[in-house]
Amino acid sequence: MTVAHLSDLHLGYDGGSGGRGRSEDVLRVFDTAMARIAGLEVGLVVIAGDVFDHPNVTAPPIAAFSRAVRRLRERLPGVVVAVAAGARDTPLNPAQQGPVAVIGALEGVETATTAVRRFGLAGGRVTVTLVPHLAARRGRALKVKPDTGARWNVLVLHGAVAGDAATRGSAAAAGRAPATGSAAAIALPGWDYLALGSRHMRAKVSARAHYSGSLERIGPDPWEEAAVDKGFLTARLDTGTVRFRPVEARAAVSLAPVDAADGGTATAARRLSEALAGVPGGIDGKLLRVPVRGLGPEDLAALDRELLTRVRGRVAELRVDSLAAGSPWTIPASHRGRRGAGLTRRDER
Predict the structure, then answer these.
(1) Full residue range of the structural domain in which residue 85 is found
(2) I need a surface site. Which of 56, 192, 214, 219 has the fewest CB within 10 A?
(3) Cα(313)–Cα(303) distance, rounded to whole angstroms?
(4) Burial 130-143 (b: 16+ CB within 10 A, else e)
(5) What does the pLDDT read at residue 323?
(6) How far apart are CA 335 and CA 349, in angstroms?
(7) pLDDT value for 165
(8) CA 36 – CA 328 distance, rounded (Å)
(9) What is d(CA 106, CA 89) in angstroms, rounded to the nearest whole number?
(10) CB 90 within 8 A of CB 113
């Protein structure tokens, strides 16, 4: 059997802007991935959490998921979609049902929302174990082992496994401490495939344990993933072969810092225009980050009115970071453009 592995879809994501552009990106890449999966003759699709961007999503993201599953099953009638709820899918109030419980009512969809759940496929030859966010938080108290009566065992977990070097390495690279307290104590041997979620960049933990990463560049800093191809994974249970299947996510560009300390707004506008003209393939439709050094909040607000408003109309998302030292400040909301643009201060380390 071949398994397709996705995670961190974040359906309903809008980049915090209140607009629809980024939300449509997330839906587009999800539809693309599901269409590709339908042509790969897989028997099982696993989604390792954060199907939705938050537990109180409106009807359209749930309807989009339902349509994608229906189209998938029209082409692959026997396929099963197995979902372990992630942190984003889980309501703060445990008495409330989140959106994963809603999609669990769909034909061909198996879900786990709060506790570990196990079910069989292919006449009992395959056992799938789902470990949602709330169960994974038990850490070393979590006791999950492969089903010895099954030919193949698949584990779907939203979280980290104890000893996961990939997660420790990514946290160190980002200057953060790894979340060791939430790592599930699951021994890797015995699992024919371990599908992990909660990281937006794909990573290999062992030959048969992987993070697939998110399909789109999302989160507070999508530019961290600018050089990373996005997509999903497929794994053959008999051979252990794991393949990355790319999908086209929104391109992200981060310019080199524009230094205007010696010339003010006029110099910044000229240098920024030159930098934008030199972006390979142009800036249209991309996620663009512009670091500016040497301008105060009033100068940056003027730059926004004179140049960045036109730039904002060409890109999918624009963020301007001030690298000026000094006390934090905030540009008034009236100077913020549409589609999530913000002017923020960033200290250089």
Answers:
(1) 2-247
(2) 56
(3) 15
(4) bbbbbbbbbbeebe
(5) 83
(6) 27
(7) 59
(8) 46
(9) 17
(10) yes
Q: Which residue has the tokens 């300390």?
A: 261
In eight-state DSSP terms, residue 257 is: P
Question: Final residue of a domain: which of 221, 247, 273?
Answer: 247
Query: Dihedrals φ, ψ of 249, to 5°?
Result: -90, 170
Structure tokens at 165: 């070097």
Q: Count CA atoms closer than 13 A to 256's CA, side-chain side.
A: 7
* CA torsion angle 94 95 98 104 (round to 10): 110
Residue 297 to residue 302: CA distance in whole angstroms: 9
Q: How many helices (H) and strands (E) does the chain have?
A: 8, 17
Spans of the chain, pLDDT less than 50: 18-20, 168-181, 326-349
Query: Of 124, 48, 110, 49, whose CA–CA distance to 81 is shortest?
Result: 110
pLDDT digits (tens, 9 = 90+) for 169-215: 444 433 333 343 457 888 899 999 999 999 999 999 999 999 999 99
**Separation CA 194–CA 210 (nearest Å):** 6
Residue showing tokens 């889980």:
90
Helices (H), 213-336: 264-277, 297-303, 309-312
Q: How far apart are CA 33 and CA 68, in angstroms?
A: 10
Q: 342-345 and 317-322: which strand pairing?
A: parallel
Query: What are the pLDDT digits (tens) for 61-94?
Result: 999 999 999 999 999 999 999 999 999 999 998 7
Which of 201, 229, 247 lies at the terminal end of a domain, its last residue?
Answer: 247
Supply φ then ψ for residue 115, to 5 degrees: -125, 160
